[in-house]
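Exercise: predict the structure of this protein bound to DP6.
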Amino acid sequence: MTMLKNQVEISSKDRWLASAPPNIALIKYMGKKPQLRNVPTNSSLSYTLDHLRTYVELEVGDFSKDDWVLLESSLLMNFAVEDQLFGLELSEKGKIRYLEFFSFLKKKMNIDNYNFIVRSNNNFPGDCGIASSASSFAALTVATYSAAKTLNPEIDLSLDDLAHLSRQGSGSSCRSFYSPWTQWEESEIYQIDFPYKSLLHQVYVVESEKKNVSSSEAHKRITSSLLNQGREARAEERLKNLCRSLKQLSWKEAFCIVWAEFWDMHALFETSHPPFGYMSKGSLRVLTCLRKHWEEFDDGPIVTMDAGPNIHCLYRDDQRKMAEKIQKELKDFSVYKNYE
Ligand code: DP6
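Solution:
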């Protein structure tokens, strides 16, 4: 089986460790087909943030049931993996969802007669504006498969099989199995090549002003928006155009498409019944600065937002100086980035 890029997959007799990265979508997965497990209404395209990882360790033992606890850095050392871990916070609801998905995976891999302690943690802080659900569900899927290969040696799954299983826990996690670019269509998830192989990533962390609606809830609520009519066709058209732009190195065109795409998603949020939203004063300040930069220099980063107030920027390697200049202009906001 082809491994995830930079994948850590280490096992002993009763413990298994795996890791997976998050990804940032440029064409968004927003809206699901009814009665199916995270089957999207439109295709999406993402860039994988390979340097960021969620680690999952599974320990099998004489436990009465599965449980989740935080993975400590010291345990990582047992596997000779050196990385700094942060205190991942999992709500009670989040824990239940995670463990329910683990039960589903155990059944699928015929190891549901065993109980485990599931330990997980991220090498990025929880408040850095990068949602960890994609990396968490992908890493849990890989770790479970690792355990299954020991406990049920007959099992034989491909990377694609694992991505499809992971999708059923959290849709966007299926894109974390490929790198650097992943396209996810209704029933296909695959790596796609563009000349931009390695991008600089910045996320501006902005205070949230509104009560959070989870992305799973957002998928349901947007069906009540009138703007949702035509959403599928708009997203598919943008995907086609974005792929063409990225292939032809038309960076500005790519920026325009991605900019329109995240505003489209946020407009769906605000026109749902009842409306909800993530855009805050700080988000608008950052967005205005980035738009003005584009207006002035006819160049800039690709900008996007997820279901949250934070702003993600992707730069080409030759835009490093520009990335630093923009960061200075936005010095009131904390920034988290993948380069020095
Ligand atoms: C706005 O994958 O978090 O980040 O399938 O219910 O777990 P579930 O939803 P999730 O949705 C991600 C939404 C998004 C856009 C994207 O990543 O494509």
